[in-house]
Amino acid sequence: MTIIEKIIAAHAHQPTISPGEIVDIDIDVRLARDFGGANVVKNLIDNQLTVEDRGKSYFTFDCNPTGSDQKYAANQQTCRLFARANDVKVYDINTGIGTHLAIDQGLITPGRTLVSTDSHANIVGAIGSFGQGMGDRDIAAAWANGKVWFKVPESVKVILNGKRKKGLSAKDIVLNLLKKFGANSLLGYCVELYGDEVDKFSLDERVTIASMATEMGAIAILIPPSKGIINYCAARSGKKVEPVYASAEANYSAVYQIDITAFVPVVSKPGKPHDVVDADEVKGTKIDSAFVGSCTNGRIGDMEVIASLLKGKKVAPGVVLKVVPATDEVWNACLENGWLKIFKDAGALVGNAGCAGCASGQIGQNGPGEVTVSTGNRNFAGKQGKGDIFLASPAVVVASALAGYITTPDDIPEKPSVFEKSGPAKAGTDRRRIQKSLKEKPVILEGKVWLIDMDNIDTDMIYHNQHLSVTKIEEMGQYTFGNLKGWEDYAKKSEPGDIVITGKNFGAGSSRQQAVDCFSSLGTQAVIARSFGAIYERNAINAGFPILTYQSLDNLELKNRDLVRIDLVNGIIQNKRNGKSAQISKFSGIQMDIYKKGDLLRN
To answer: What is d(CA 96, CA 328) in angstroms, rounded to the nearest whole number?
Structure first.
């Protein structure tokens, strides 16, 4: 078996397992973050569920470690009160990113399983563990039952051949891989990464690479643990570590041989993490701000790199450099090594340990028209604010902050670029609040279609992160597609019973449940897509919300607002205007069971 198959088989208590099987697996570490934690608590209380193992369940407050947003603060306090009443440990706002803490605090070790209300829970693939981001229903189920259902993914093997160029960072490596594979060619696969250079990767480098599996659509990138990783995990956990490696005869859906010597420093252009170009192509682009941090590049190794570049220098006039260490341990290392003084002397803003720019209400957000170069993992429109986000390595980000424009460490000018006078940015517009609902759960659906011919519609486009503190489903509908260009008024014009038909990789990105529940709030009956993001698919199924996939609907000759009939049992869609039909996916047994109950957590 492959690594993921061995881990799942062991946690399902089965001798063998194959791709496509759906099994219940034991979860060793169960994390609930501050934005999703309050909903986990609500689900547990509403369904009168108790915590199955308090020693495996944790709250991590990393989205808003300053507690600066009132709604986040309220959610955090909800979690604290529940934790006190139920003897659950809280990693509070002074500790850092939950998935990093799980590794560094020894909660997770190689070969184990972890779930979190964090779409980058697969970071633990850095140590050869299986982590998954899930919605609040899934996490509540894991807290209550100690296990969740999971479909065994197919595995692919990626082998990096050759030796990397001097100065090529782990971020460059993963962005080069993202350029090759795009946002959905690895959708739903588990990737195993091999090569002589891979064996030499530090833990920090492994974290950077594993963290961006989500942006490729992959379930996880699993990196077989080296001796150094094993020793680190054993020391941090105080336990014997039993790593899991693939069998020599393991079967893979594909094997990719990639020449790492061809990799160069690269940058992702705004809007799409996979829109990767050579750094030279965007060199000279004027920037307003720069950000170093996130779960992808907030480790000690990253801080050391930027300290070496900033020492004795000043950030370009008018440019704001924001630095946010991933954990309190990293923050303290910056203090002890004198790096904080270097950062401050250079003119940088240093924040509390945490996620920062990826989460609303924390250091790293940018405004309309603002151009930012960032070490984050995503640059979807609206994800890190209303401006444009370029993704790059810590070295490129800091070099750019010193220059005032995008550049590389070997090409920092003696005199930085300065801003020319410009007019004020245009203000945005508010949207009218709309609340609708649909209660019945028929197996035959009829409704008018909205044809949204786009691939890779991410969860920030479906439901923007600035509304993540909303916990009442009836309030969510008004924000649906509010950040999807051309569809910002969807909530105003949609009608109860509507059906959305769209392209590949719908729901890519975050683990937010609201991106599903907003459709229920409006009364939308179903979403049909060529494929779905892995976490989004789980969230929809677990909410009892119909999602289906198709290969081709061309013969239906669909027009916007055509009336269609969908048979969930047999997987058939019919255009009522012309009577033409096509085959789509039909509900699996577990999907139908949850759909009939209306929710994963209902009996």
So the answer is: 6
